[in-house]
Amino acid sequence: MQRIGVFVCHCGTNIAATVDVKAVAEAMKNEPGVVFSVDYQYMCSEAGQNLIQDTIKEQKLTGVVVCSCSPRMHEATFRKAAAKAGINSYMVEIANIREQCSWIHKDIMTATEKAIILARTAVAKVQLNAPLTPGESPVTKRALVIGGGIAGIQTALDIAEAGFDVDIVEKQPTIGGKMTQIDKTFPTLDCAACILTPKMVDCAQNEKIHIYAYSEVESVSGFVGNFTVKIKKKARYVDTTKCTGCGICTEKCPKKSVPNEFNLGMDNRRAIYIPFAQAVPKVATIDADNCNMLKNGKCGVCAKVCTAGAIDYKQQDEIIEEQYGAIVAATGYNPISLEKYDEFAYSQSKDVVTSLEFERLTNAAGPTSGQLLRPSDGKHPHTIVFVQCVGSRDTSGCGKEYCSKICCMYTAKHAMLTREKYPDTDVYVFYIDVRTPGKLFDEFYRRAVEQYGVHYIKGMVGKVAPRADGKLLVQASDLIANEQLHIEADMVVLAAAIEPDKSARSIATMLTASMDTNDFFTEAHPKLRPVESPTAGVFLSGVCQGPKDIPETVSQASAAAAKVIGLLSKDKLTCNPCVAHSDELMCNGCSACEKVCPYGAITYSDKEFRQPDRTVAIRRVASVNEAVCQGCGACTVACPSGAMDLKGFSNKQIMAEVDAICK
Amino acid sequence: MQEQTVKRALELLADGTVNRVLGWKTGEFAYDTTPAVFTSAEEVEKSFIYNDFCGPNLSKYLIKESRKEGKILVFLKPCDTYSFNQLCKEHRLIRENIYVIGVPCTGKVSAEKIKSSGIKGITGMESDGENVTVHTLYGDSTVKKSDAMGAKCSTCKSKKHVAFDELIGEDGEVNNDNARFEMVEKLEAMSADERYEFWRGELSKCIRCNACRNVCPACSCENCVFDNPESGIQQRAAVNSFEENMFHLIRAFHVAGRCTDCGECSRVCPQNIPLHLLNRKYIKDINEFYGDYQAGADLDTRPPLNAYTFDDCEPSIVYKKGGNE
Amino acid sequence: MQVNENNFRPKIVAFCCNWCSYAGADLAGTNRLNYPADVKIIRVPCSCRVNPMFILRAFQRGADGVIMCGCHPGDCHYTSGNYFARRRMTLLFSMLDYMGIERERTRVEWVSAAEGAKFAATMNEFVETVTALGENKRLEDLRCKSKQ
Hints:
heterotrimer, A: 663 residues, alpha/beta, Rossmann fold, FAD/NAD(P)-binding domain, 5 domains, five-stranded parallel β-sheet, 18 helices, 25% strand, B: 325 residues, 3 domains, five-stranded mixed β-sheet, three-stranded antiparallel β-sheet, 13 helices, globular
């Protein structure tokens, strides 16, 4: 039998003016288990807390009920006080007689009556409380960053800077991500490569950072502080320890007609290739789908020319297993496929390009060595039309409903750079709205309009029709002048919406991290915990969480790193003790609980049980990982046998509360 | 059918594929069959039967049987295979230890149904697949088989086996006509008062014999919540009337989304309470609210109560639903 | 038992999730928004912790109405809890209706931590509805015929 003490708080007059606190304290004396009941002016004051502690000792209390303000306010205070006096802090329950009683009722009789019921309910619950001890779990002091774009690179560098080991897994042969393909960056117009490649080199040279390029995450198990991750190192058919990156093989390879992904297929590479000059790691990779040697055993040129002897046609995919304390998702984005937007003639004319392709066409390392030339005939374009929001802010169902956020700024950049380099070029930008919030962003856009004379026209392009003479007839509406426009353009540039990388969905599943309907990772809290996923130990960096530009990505990447560092600097994690618990004797092993657990906290194992007839039966039973469980209780209702229960909110406790209210 | 089933049972016993056979044998009366485990060829030859009276669903017995030494042969009717699949899905059976022969079924005769038509003093019954000859103390009478089937079979949901190692006879088709929901619809169309009277009348007949729970293949828990002191609803005489009052409501919810509509609960109820109408209500609601779902039809779909979509209907749909008031 | 219509005060049990609805109820209090004292709140971590058994238990013990409040769909602290709760409650309420229990006695409402006013308004309305229905007798004695 519990020995329960009840403490009724006046909260000055906040409670005492509407609730007859003495009557409540008096009424509680008759409740089963209650050995002490008193009212006091301010329970949360030091004197009030001392009263609780002294009473616990004098009366040998095993449970405490405080009738006061909301538990969201002072539950922690009273729990600490109880713990100081030597009883388990989870033996304390709060009856909320302020927010949910005295403050909402005017009639003293009614409020007092209700306060008594609320107090009685808390007493009924404490009767069934059991001491709970928060578990502890160790922390593996190593972080994994999935994705080696600017987000992943920045996160990794910051974590390494703090002295922790960090691994980057990148599915491409080199780190660097989308930023490597970009020519210049807004609003300062410095060259992307000049600011990114030093960071890539920093990553490669940092002793704390290990880069698994051309690798993918195969599986993730475990929980915050203790993840076990299998990483597949895809076969490059090149020994990365021997390859010097001299590039002779990529010049001698006879297979010349492989579309070059780095330039978005606008020129060709060989079957053995290094994506670009500043690649990190700078080693060659054989594209198995296009290599004659690997396909039919006829060639072997690269092996012959390689002085380092690095070519290894027999190389296999390799799976390695690593332990991590924290995982950062930095899986990035891609422009959407423009198949559904045939009105813009993207698939009909080479001169209709996406903005990313335009970046490559203006980049010195691109297919035209930085000369802006029409892809169809290699001539200088004299009229260029930029179309904004292709697939963004699209409620028709074929695109994305969200704003891709970066297009307004990069289009202003493209328009400005075009006008600067080729002043004889007419540049039109069709937009729904121009959105340029951000430091120096609106100034940048205004420069494009005012200083560079870019024609900004509010309105959408209805159709792009390629003509036989090579011109593109652009039909559009000017919503402000309220007229139809027909422009004979040489090039059309489409600001395609961006979407999360396709690999993000499977990675989210492995991490048991949640995603929104657009496949962006969701945050633990959109405002207050923006770089954490709801799954403990999983953090978000870059566009995988939502569209953002480079400055924003970098700051978020550093924020995620700060959270990771905070986690890794702990030796042990204290867990919430109000977690689910499975009674193995009752568990059927049916997997219902596992299906509703948002955290992947439930696992199954076969265990031996002694039967009444002395035989031993093997049954599949669930167990809850207390370090992962967040205590929502979804499993307790899904469980058909009632084997699953929630500590601190057990079936019996809640039923006792129901009974006490309905008594 | 009898010969083919016995033949295969004997063959599989003889070649060592299995060491036991789970089937049916005659109970107290010829028409009252009971599940039985046969461990030898002699036993099979002597008492194994498969005929129009073999109503019992054998799948639940496999929970215990599949954990024993050696492989067991089981004969499953189409509707039983759904229960079998559902149990496999819930990891309740050790599939490797079971050899399933699917047997065709044209509906099983229910003695209760015949009795309810006014025929008394039954001493025996025979069925030729079309008609049932009923021997009574007062002479023989003939009933069309279609009129002699219980609720379980009169609105059969499927003649297709969804799990088997081999089949005897031709496999049938899933029946999608939703005829099984007719009685549920009828109830839904009543007024709340009428529905209340109906259920109060039916449920007050309950003697809490637990037959429905014990036969139900979805009620496969190691330890039932009604027997578990920690669940808060354990039955304790005269202390707690909660479980007494709510037994069927709670049980129906526990099996919601898992009940394959095998109809065993109503078949075994000694008080003839139409318990399947509770389960069918859940099945009908699930189909209407969340899309068609047949528990046990496969091994991998998520049970509807352990799944969700972002745009599921709100609970207020219950107020909006037509039919009455 | 004869109920005096004028004096009848319903017993209402409200299950509130810790993160949104319980905080919403607190906000109603902070803003001094009145709702009837007939409503008693039970705090649960998440709406998905509410077992249909609890609701049946409340009715059987004499509650006249049971309301469950949780975070708005999409806002669950545990990401998916209220989606499961929504399905469970939809099916349970539909079943209660099917058994002839007045459907207005049960309710689910999504109340965020910012919606103190909505919490108070919901409770006012719910209490009014249940008061109009009168005492809950059906679920208490579903099994046993009244002894007349």
